Amino acid sequence: MHTNLTEKERGLLELLRENPSMGITEMGKTLKVSTVTVRSILNTLSEKGYILRTWGGALPTFHPTMMEQLRRHTEEKNRIAKAAASLIQDGDTVMIEAGSTTALIVRYLLGKRDITIVSNNTLLLPYARANPSLRLTLVGGEFRPQTESLVGPIALAELERFHVRRAFVGTDGFTLEKGLTTHLVEGAEIVKRMAAQAQETILVADSSKFGKVGFVQVLPLKRIHRLITDTGLPEEAARMLQSEGLPVDRV
């Protein structure tokens, strides 16, 4: 995730996102650093898993769609994820759905103990590796690089084996009328299954998602027990959501 990168590392990764064929010399000229520095940054990005080194350059390891998601609303996503993590107590069992915001929740679980996580989100793996007190079950299924997720019949069948206290889910859009919506049918099925296996379902979504309607309906708002979003959500919208019985945390 971009949150563990330096400014120069983010800059170089952004260059590669825009032009994967860019050479080391051109990278150095664009960033106004030496080619030695560029090679050093590329080596670091490779070690962190963001790129694959090639002869004279590098290629991003993330799908372009996911690269775009990772670079947007990073401050808001971190605040939301931190607030979501504060709800998780020692000994809790949780499900975490695919998404860039949901993955960050694991980043803020350091210091908590005996947490069991079931997830289809491959983005959270770096944070899970860094926290030995977590027990992570990553479900099987078909890998979708554009969402860094595991989906399909195998993932659904494995999720059905578990019962958890809370499920943390994301969305491509949500409105009062349509509830949660997304662009991918298989992603919608994962969210539905997680909600069915959890005592509480918590939506973590930055305010840019409000008012947007995706291709597939996922869940009505009445199936969501809490929304954690950022202060960009207008107060009037928060009041309307709360009037429908949905508690809203604007962080």
Q: Your description of this structure?
A:
It is globular and about 55 Å long. Helix 1 packs across helix 3 and helix 2 (about 25-30) crosses helix 3. The protein has two domains: about 1-60, Orthogonal Bundle (Arc Repressor Mutant, subunit A); about 70-250, Rossmann fold, CATH 3.40.50. The chain has helices at about 5-20, 25-30, 35-45, 65-70, 75-85, 100-105, 125-130, 155-160, 185-195, 235-245; strands at about 50-55, 55-60, 95, 115-120, 135-140, 140-145, 150, 165-170, 175, 180, 200-205, 215-220, 225-230, 250. Strand 9 and strand 10 (about 180) form a beta hairpin. The mean pLDDT is about 90. The strands form four sheets. The chain has a seven-stranded parallel β-sheet. The longest helix is centred in the first third of the chain and has 13 residues, at about 35-45. With about 250 residues, the chain is of the alpha/beta class.
A few lines on this structure:
The chain is α/β, with parallel strands linked by helices and 251 residues long. The protein has helices at residues 7-18, 24-31, 35-47, 64-71, 74-86, 100-104, 125-129, 153-159, 185-197, 235-243, and strands spanning 51-54, 57-60, 93-96, 115-119, 134-138, 142-144, 149-151, 164-169, 173-175, 179-182, 198-204, 216-219, 226-229, 248-250.
